[in-house]
Amino acid sequence: MSDFLEIIEKPLSDNIYLLAGWRQWADAGSISSGLPQYLIQQTNARKIGSISPDGFYIFQIPGTHDLVRPLVKFKNGYPEFLETERNEFFYSGDRKNGLVIFLGDEPHMDVDRYTGAILEAAKTWGVKRIIGLGGVYGELPYDLERMVSSVYSLPQLKDELDHLGVNLSEYQGGASIGSYICGQASQRKMEYVSFYGFVPTYDFSDTNQNVNGITIENDYTAWLGIMQRVNHMLKLELDLTDLQEKSEHLRKLMDEKIEEIDRSAPEIDIRNYLQRLKDDFDETIFQPHDDFWEEELGRLFDKFDPDDEPETKPLS
Fold first, then answer.
1. What residues does 203 pair with on adjacent strands?
2. Which residues on adjacent β-strands are paired with residue 209?
3. Burial of 193 (0-12, 13-18, 19+ CB in 10 A)
4. How far is it, in rounded angstroms, from Cα 80 to Cα 98?
5. What is the Cα–Cα distance from 270 to 280, expressed in whole angstroms?
6. Contacts of 79 (CB under 8 A, 6+ apart)
7. Which of 56, 285, 305, 316 is deepest in the core (most CB within 10 A)?
8. What is the mean pLDDT of residues 30-42?
9. pTM, entire model
10. How far apart (Å, rounded) are the C-alpha atoms in residues 214 and 202?
11. pLDDT tens digit sequence for 288-300
12. How far apart are CA 161 and CA 151, in angstroms?
């Protein structure tokens, strides 16, 4: 085992999955950083491992001032706080199903060694599948379900994704840490799937210098859409009630913000702008096939009243 990978505990669940997120470049709506932290707190997950930061991070880049420097806080000359990179594994589960949650800082260098440590930990714990998280900003309706894009490491995973209401990515460009790990997992014949949620953002700076725009810091609606897919795919049965409530509250806050902009800056014509986005948006509502047929059968049987027996007469 690598000397920079620390394994504290080996869970004994029959089925172990790993959900991974990072404080990273592709973190719109805090999908990659906020959602794992939320799940760690919600499931009371305990720490079971970590990756040492040694050799993965740059202290400074000449000419960029504090772009990558760690934050420090002093009080009366004494250091109260020093931010350091953290890459930690947490675990929550039972004898049947277990979920390892990884939350880390995207590395600046030596990505092969960093990726190898995550995949090595997954093998050590007998992880069946790794789920990576990412977020991308876009001009999208805030009051509809989020679009989710996906990549996968092995050809046989495509059939599952075809039933999860996702768009299979055609992206070409600079790699995020999630897409890099997907490529490495493919070479090692390991199951890896990434879900990238598309998060609404609106820029009005060209129309009104006093209204910059709207950016959603924690997109609970995107978190919910992704976790519904994770829940279904891995059969985890995580309680998503709190996320549903947070998503509904987020929509109300957005409604209020739109109303405020409509009153204060009518020249933006924000309602027509949002309506145009809706008209051009093809909403994909996540509804697993088995859930769909269960609902349809329920409707079918509801049509028949058990007390309403048909009249019969004996055969002569």
1. 213
2. none
3. buried
4. 36
5. 16
6. 72, 73
7. 56
8. 98
9. 0.87
10. 5
11. 755 544 544 555 5
12. 9
